[in-house]
Write a structure and sequence with these properties.
This protein has a two-stranded antiparallel sheet. The chain is mainly α. Helix 1 crosses helix 2. Helix content is 61%, strand content 3%.
């Protein structure tokens, strides 16, 4: 009695979530195409919905493609992605060469995602630093304006005090003038 080694295993028996199964099927269809396509085996494409280049034409780094990743994965989920003999829809081919290609492909995808994470982390840090500098500059500017405003208020208070003194003196002088004028008319 000989034990037959399976040539493939259903992807639903790999202990993956539904989302992970869809992702596996999507990437397996790219890495191990059952028919000829523009991306050959071992071509490290990016995650669904991402371009594999590190910069886009707008200079903002890797960007989401116009298609939705959920549409991309769900549209490929039902396809035959076996990558050759023994593989059918939703099966992982247990052949050393196919598994090596798939492993190299996933290494490339992970590297691409890691680079994107690094890029976004750097952009986030740059943005936070810029906002911090801007806020510090704004705070310094606001502090300077508050100091200027307080100085203006102090000067206004001094002028109002001086105005009141001068007005009081003027009233006294005007009162003496009236008395002097009145005394001059009496003579």
């Amino acid at each position: 009695m000989s034990t037959r080694i399976p040539t493939s295993v259903p992807d639903t028996q790999l202990g993956l979530t539904t989302s992970e199964i869809q992702t596996l099927r999507y990437h397996q269809s790219i890495a191990l195409p059952s028919s000829s396509s523009s991306s050959g085996p071992g071509h490290a494409a990016a995650a669904p919905g991402y371009t594999s280049s590190t910069t886009s034409s707008r200079g903002r780094g890797m960007s989401r493609s116009s298609g939705s990743s959920s549409r991309a994965t769900s549209s490929t989920a039902g396809r035959s992605v076996g990558g050759g003999a023994g593989g059918g829809p939703g099966r992982l081919v247990l052949e050393a060469g196919s598994l090596a290609v798939l492993t190299r492909y996933f290494d490339g995808v992970m590297e691409s995602i890691g680079a994107r994470i690094d890029y976004l982390t750097a952009q986030t840090q740059s943005s936070a630093l810029s906002q911090s500098r801007s806020a510090a500059s704004t705070i310094a500017g606001a502090d300077a304006e508050i100091a200027r405003f307080r100085d203006l208020l102090r000067q206004l208070d001094e002028l109002e005090t001086e105005f009141d003194k001068v007005q009081h003196i003027r009233d006294i002088v005007a009162g003496f003038r009236k008395r002097v004028d009145a005394m001059g008319k009496r003579r």
